[in-house]
């Protein structure tokens, strides 16, 4: 039935009709509809994810323990090496000095030494000692005629001399360097200007 422009419209009927239309447009979802719907894949369950995470934690913890043990072993070995280096650092030099000692003992074992045999034996022993020094980076300081260097020389006295002032004129005792470090400074007499 169609409404004329002249017929009155009941407001209750209009609102009832609109509610009925809205309900038809969006039908309600029932449990049967939910059950019939295709399942969406959700991935691993929470228990499986937790189990996988626990396995990873155990793996990382084991790797950490191994790395820690290895670090401790390296530290311990390094400390042992430092102790051994300090204890046996003179090993090579000591081996070189054994030949010098053998030569001195052989010279003293001669029943009737002559001056010439003592001199030649002493020269040979000195050569062995110098060779041992060279192999161990022990260098002699003999600064005669050089400028005085307070880092390598120790001045015992100062004397008037025709040489240039602050020059070493006499070496009382040679000095020695071990590599680049002064083992013993040379004891020297230094020139001063003549007045």
Low-confidence stretches: 19-23
- CATH 2nd-level architecture of the domain at 137-195: Roll
Q: What is the CATH H-level superfamily of the domain at 137-195? A: Head domain of nucleotide exchange factor GrpE
Number of strands: 6
Q: How many helices in DSSP terms?
A: 5
Distance between the termini: 148 Å
In the sheet with the most strands, the strands line up as 1-4-5
The radius of gyration over CA amounts to: 51 Å
User: What's the order of the H and E elements?
Assistant: HHHHHEEEEEE
Largest sheet: 3 strands, antiparallel
The computed structural class is: alpha+beta
How much strand? Answer: 15-25%
Defining key terms:
about 200 residues; alpha+beta; Nucleotide Exchange Factor Grpe, Chain A, domain 2; 3-stranded antiparallel sheet; 3-stranded mixed sheet; about 15% strand
Q: What's the quick description here?
A:
The chain is of the alpha+beta class and 195 residues long.
């Amino acid at each position: 039935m169609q409404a004329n422009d002249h017929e009155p419209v009941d407001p209750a009927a209009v609102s009832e009709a609109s509610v009925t239309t809205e309900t038809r447009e969006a039908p309600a979802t029932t449990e049967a509809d939910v059950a019939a719907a295709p399942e969406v894949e959700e991935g691993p369950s929470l228990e499986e994810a937790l189990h996988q995470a626990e396995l990873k934690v155990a793996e990382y913890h084991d790797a950490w323990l191994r790395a820690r043990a290895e670090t401790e072993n390296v530290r311990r070995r390094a400390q042992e090496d430092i102790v051994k280096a300090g204890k046996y650092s003179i090993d090579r030099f000591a081996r070189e000095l054994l030949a010098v000692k053998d030569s001195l003992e052989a010279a003293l074992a001669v029943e009737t030494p002559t001056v010439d045999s003592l001199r030649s034996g002493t020269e040979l022993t000195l050569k062995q000692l110098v060779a041992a020094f060279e192999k161990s980076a022990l260098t002699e300081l003999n600064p005669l005629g050089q400028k005085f260097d307070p880092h390598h020389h120790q001045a015992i006295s100062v004397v008037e001399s025709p040489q240039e002032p602050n020059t070493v004129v006499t070496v009382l005792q040679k000095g020695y360097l071990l590599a680049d470090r002064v083992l013993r400074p040379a004891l020297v007499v230094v020139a001063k200007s003549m007045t």
